[in-house]
Amino acid sequence: MKVFPRTVVAPRPGCASPRLEVLAVRSIEQVEAEMSNAEERGLVVRPSRFGHGETLRLLTAAIAHHGATLFAVIDHAANAAEVDLELPPTAVVIFGNPAVGTPLMRGEPDLALDLPSRVLVREDATGMVEVVYLDPARLAERHGLESNQVKGLVGLTAIVDEALGSR
After folding, report:
1. Predicted model pTM
2. CA angle at residue 136 from 133 to 141, to 5 degrees?
């Protein structure tokens, strides 16, 4: 089984020599199973090569660059800490473009349950940062949108592509 370990080299307290620590590993099979499960639920999971904070910064910059409105960033890890609970870095970025979303919601009012767009930026136990969002095609299918209406929803993918350096 092939694994992807994350290693940290850091000096032990009171010791000048570094130590090697394996925090967690995920096998290829585990990663593939997680991706398949996400697809079944209509989610897109994209790895980030950046840390959690940098990924959030790049995402909010891409949102601004595309002319969308940033409505909120919900820091679930900070909220958990306020009640003495632990959660790895986990934040939801809520954004949208009323000029795009409003006409869609006029035609399909239930779409308001899924708009504005939400993107989850999370760090797993291995330190890997992932960006997760609802698949725009599945969202369009769920709400019975026409192909010409889907264009407004796929802007989400362009924003994530820019943030992750995939453009």
Report:
1. 0.78
2. 130
